[in-house]
């Protein structure tokens, strides 16, 4: 099973939706939404309420020569309060429902996907951070191309958090003894708070998933999306004030895969970047 | 049926075929709760049930508004004489479906409600001198026809714009429809510069409808007086501040104001009306 909920840069969602579409997976079922979500759209015609639409949480299925694939795509993360990421009772209930379906269909492995906020430059090829829910999977992950473990990342020492359901699902799967891996595409630290997609990281995730699942993929459409997104990010980047750009330019030299070498930017630099970006977007970029 | 742990029943009055009127806090001008408060004062109602806040509201502390601590309330009142049930509540922050089903459980199982009406104010860019309109959204043909007896059907078309969410009233209409309970939401556009204070004309518009629909026999003299009083006070502001007069004239001519002008108008009217309260 490959499961995903929305998160930063829509990285996992784009990757998994692309994979699902490439395989032409068919809709299998859905989790009834009303106990999890507030409605997202109402349609009123001629003074009469015709439709109330809720965020969808759907399962898809595809049988291939390489095996059977189940997909789960959630349009929103259920929360007990007004937060963007799932937490609390509702999140746990939804994670259990997804795992119930995975077990019912005999899934052997679950992948989830999300974003890894990293001090990288947007011109770099995003790596994929992979976190398994059992040590047994570490050697397998080490064989994945362009992929790193938490322990490969400077200053992390194998520690970290995966926010929301893309992480929680791994925990619930672990509880039930199902192997799971979360694959997270890197997004530059300065793009994390923006309401834009980052398909370049989705491509990295997709490449890892396709290799792991033994699926051939056609990246033509995704590449076109990436070209468009890169142009927009470049335009935005050009409008950053010189003092912010000076810090961001240092990120061009970052390579996480070499934890033993001193990084080109310090923790202080990272903090300064986030503060500067916050100020910049609060003020609003100046029009040319 | 919703879990009953969150519902507290104080008494079990006998209802024959009642109707439920719902007012939420937090709508434009708090019109919904003002209408409920007005009806409560006129009809001599009693509280008979309430929904406990624990499962539906964050209770990490309390907010303070106008120097006073606020706490979520969700209370049912009834008028024995008019066979009318009123529900006044803050809008829940989570478990909306369960909350609404608790409301519907009370309506259906305790009160044998046949019709539900929700009341809400919405922001209008019109001047206060324009007559107040009443818009209705129904969840069935049956209630739409019933509404048509008391107000001209405007046949509104609407779809939630991107980035926004449906109102809780729409959610209630949908949940009521699933139980075959006829429901309608009633909306009165409130001039934007009256939002921080109050709009008795909007209140009167809704009460007039409810009065006709349920034969409440309301004496409107106090509401008429409140409308007249507010109009006079705004006329005095217009006289004292030509700029305010100019802004309102713009609105009366169906012209729009800039954001800065709108903010200034809101501020001047609010300050003046609060000062002369």
SSE layout and pairings?
The complex is a heterodimer of chains A (288) and B (277).
Chain A: E1 2-4, H1 11-22, E2 26-30, E3 41-45, E4 48-53, E5 57-64, E6 67-74, H2 88-104, E7 109-118, E8 128-132, H3 138-142, E9 147-148, H4 165-175, E10 179-188, H5 199-213, H6 220-238, H7 242-249, H8 267-283
Parallel strand pairs in A: 1-6, 1-7, 7-10, 8-9
Antiparallel strand pairs in A: 2-5, 3-4, 5-6, 8-10
Chain B: E1 7-9, E2 19-24, H1 31-43, E3 46-51, E4 63-65, E5 68-70, E6 74-79, E7 84-89, H2 96-110, E8 115-124, E9 135-138, H3 141-148, E10 158-159, H4 168-177, E11 182-191, H5 200-214, H6 221-240, H7 242-252, H8 259-275
Parallel strand pairs in B: 2-7, 2-8, 8-11
Antiparallel strand pairs in B: 1-3, 3-6, 4-5, 6-7, 9-11
Overview of this protein structure:
The complex is a heterodimer of chains A (288) and B (277). By secondary structure, chain A is α/β, with parallel strands linked by helices. Chain A has helices at 11-22, 88-104, 138-142, 165-175, 199-213, 220-238, 242-249, 267-283, and strands at 2-4, 26-30, 41-45, 48-53, 57-64, 67-74, 109-118, 128-132, 147-148, 179-188. Chain A contains 8 helices and 10 strands. In chain A, the strands form 2 sheets. Chain A has an 8-stranded mixed sheet, with helices on both faces. The N and C termini of chain A lie far apart (47 Å). Residues 257-263 of chain A have low confidence and may be disordered. Chain B has 2 domains: 7-223, Rossmann fold (3-Layer(aba) Sandwich), CATH 3.40.50; 225-275, no CATH class. In chain B, a hairpin with a 4-residue loop joins β6 (74-79) and β7. Chain B is globular, with a radius of gyration of 19 Å. The model of chain B has no long low-confidence stretch (mean pLDDT 91). The chains are: A alpha/beta (288), B alpha/beta (277). At the A-B interface, β3 and β4 of A face α2, β9, β10 and α4 of B. β3 (41-45) of chain A pairs antiparallel with β10 of chain B, so a sheet runs across the interface.
């Amino acid at each position: 099973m490959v499961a995903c909920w929305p998160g930063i840069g829509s990285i996992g969602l784009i990757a998994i939706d692309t994979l699902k579409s490439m395989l032409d997976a068919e809709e299998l079922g859905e989790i009834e939404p009303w106990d999890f979500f507030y409605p997202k759209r109402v349609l009123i015609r001629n003074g009469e309420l015709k439709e109330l639409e809720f965020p969808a949480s759907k399962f898809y299925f595809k049988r291939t020569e390489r095996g059977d694939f189940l997909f789960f795509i959630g349009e929103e993360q259920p929360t007990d309060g007004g937060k963007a990421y799932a937490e609390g009772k509702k999140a746990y209930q939804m994670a259990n429902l997804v795992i119930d379906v995975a077990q019912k269909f005999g899934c052997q492995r679950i992948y989830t996907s999300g974003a890894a906020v990293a001090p990288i430059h947007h011109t770099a090829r995003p790596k994929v951070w992979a976190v398994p829910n059992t040590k047994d999977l570490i050697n397998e992950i080490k064989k994945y191309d362009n992929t790193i473990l938490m322990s490969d990342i400077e200053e992390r020492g194998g520690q970290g958090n995966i926010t929301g359901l893309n992480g929680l699902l791994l925990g619930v799967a672990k509880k039930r003894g199902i192997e799971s891996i979360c694959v997270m595409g890197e997004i530059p630290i300065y793009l994390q708070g923006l309401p834009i997609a980052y398909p370049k990281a989705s491509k990295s995730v997709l490449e890892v998933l396709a290799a792991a699942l033994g699926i051939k993929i056609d990246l033509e459409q995704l590449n076109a999306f990436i070209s468009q997104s890169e142009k927009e990010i470049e335009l935005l980047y050009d409008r950053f004030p010189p003092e912010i750009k000076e810090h961001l330019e240092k990120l061009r030299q970052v390579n996480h895969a070499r934890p033993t070498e001193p990084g080109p930017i310090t923790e202080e630099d990272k903090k300064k970047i986030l503060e500067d970006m916050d100020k910049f977007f609060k003020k609003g970029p100046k029009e040319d | 049926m919703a879990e009953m742990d969150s519902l507290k029943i104080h008494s079990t009055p006998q209802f024959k075929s009642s109707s439920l009127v719902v007012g939420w806090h937090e709508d434009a001008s708090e019109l919904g709760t003002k209408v409920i408060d007005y009806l409560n004062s006129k009809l001599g109602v009693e509280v008979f049930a309430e929904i406990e806040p624990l499962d539906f509201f964050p209770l990490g502390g309390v907010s303070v508004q106008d120097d006073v601590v606020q706490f979520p309330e969700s209370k049912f009142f009834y008028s024995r004489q008019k066979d009318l049930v009123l529900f006044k509540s803050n809008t829940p922050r989570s478990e909306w479906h369960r909350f609404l089903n608790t409301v519907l459980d009370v309506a259906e199982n305790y009160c044998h409600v046949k019709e539900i009406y929700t009341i809400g104010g919405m922001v209008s860019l019109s001047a206060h001198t324009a007559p107040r309109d009443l818009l209705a959204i129904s969840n069935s043909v049956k209630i739409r026809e019933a509404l048509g007896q008391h107000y001209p059907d405007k046949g509104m078309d609407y779809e939630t714009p991107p980035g926004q969410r449906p109102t809780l009233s729409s959610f209630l209409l949908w949940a009521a429809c699933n139980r075959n309970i006829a429901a309608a939401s009633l909306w009165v556009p409130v001039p934007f510069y009256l939002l921080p204070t109050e709009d008795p004309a909007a209140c009167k518009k809704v009460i007039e409808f409810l009065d006709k629909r349920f034969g409440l026999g309301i004496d409107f003299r106090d509401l008429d007086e409140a409308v007249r009083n507010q109009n006079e006070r705004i006329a005095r502001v217009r006289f004292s501040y030509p700029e305010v007069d100019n802004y309102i004239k713009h609105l009366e001519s169906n012209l729009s104001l800039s954001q800065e002008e709108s903010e200034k108008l809101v501020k001047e009217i609010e300050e003046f009306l609060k000062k002369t309260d």
